[in-house]
Amino acid sequence: MLQVNDLHKKFKGTTAVNGVNLYLGQGESIGLLGPNGAGKSTTISMISTLLTPTSGDIRFKGTDVFKQPDVIRPVLGVVPQEIALYEELTAYENMKFFGQTYGLSGKKLTIKIDEILELVGLTDRKKERIKNYSGGMKRRINMAVSLMHEPELLIMDEPTVGIDPQSRSHILEVVRELNRRKGMSILYTSHYMEEVEKLCDRVYIMDHGQIIASGTKEELKSILSSEDTILIEAHQKSDQFIDQLNENGRIQQVVKVDQGYKVIVSKGEDLFADIFELANVCQVKVKGVHVQTPTLEDVFLHLTGRKLRD
Ligand SMILES: Nc1ncnc2c1ncn2[C@@H]1O[C@H](COP(=O)(O)OP(=O)(O)OP(=O)(O)O)[C@@H](O)[C@H]1O
Ligand SMILES: [Mg+2]
User: Fold this and answer.
1) Could you tell me the pTM of the whole model?
2) What confidence tens digit (pLDDT) does each residue in 15-27 have?
3) Nearest-CA neighbor of 174 among 108, 115, 132, 126?
4) Residue closest to 20 by CA, chosen among 41, 35, 39
5) Which atom, in ligand 1's list, is nearest to the CA of 11?
6) Could you tell me if 233 and 272 are in contact, meaning their C-beta atoms sit under 8 angstroms apart?
7) In CA terms, which of 194, 217, 266, 277 is 20 to 30 Å from 302?
């Protein structure tokens, strides 16, 4: 359905997208996972034909979207990273406005609005102005307006950043429903790997304008088949401890995480004794040490030496 071939975008002084290749099959749900500044939004803007690439091409059902934007525009829904709603209008009025711009009117329009309000769970709040909505509710309506014309392909740019857990799980449910039940094709962008793991059939990991790995979750995790991730639970954050861990020749990588420290080691290395000894030297109180099954976050860590979120 969608093919992105060797896409580049240079801004003055910055190469935002540096040779991206990706594809999306009909009815598929793919994730584009990458840290801040990776080039996700720039890639999406080009797929949406809002931005012209420096080089490369994008094909929708075989047609070049820059030569014929009309092949993609009418069937594309985009949920932008920034909220794009009229604050002074109610949710209902926003949906009516966006529905009309897609050519809906009369009974068809009102039925569609009611259906989508139900889907995003805001029927009872439809008469309130957007400016009085919570951040999570705004995000749900931001998504709702992009669904008014029943797009074949829905692109979502970090739709759950900074919102309450209830709205977040609601948005994830809706995306799953649209994909699994209605067969809508989805390109989902995020730096929350748990979301991408839940929602997407295949994942592209992006960093510094490039796709650094792609495949199913299982394929990506198999990159780590020769390594173990060990979580060291500890409250104190000690740079000395990190230095000491790094100096241990059998440890490949060390990062600070919320619960303590994560280290990547070759599979089967028994480092528990070393870890406790170093912690003792650095006066770090360790609450627990666990070998973990790898996550996509660990794959990213392995590939870049950094965390997805700082
Ligand atoms: N219009 C622009 N002019 C100049 N530089 C830009 C422009 N848009 C994006 N960039 C730069 O391109 C790079 C990629 O930005 P982009 O917004 O695509 O990243 P992102 O992956 O969406 O990040 P985030 O997760 O923070 O939204 C960044 O270095 C950014 O500063
Ligand atoms: Mg972005």
Assistant:
1) 0.84
2) 999 999 999 999 9
3) 115
4) 39
5) 4
6) no
7) 277
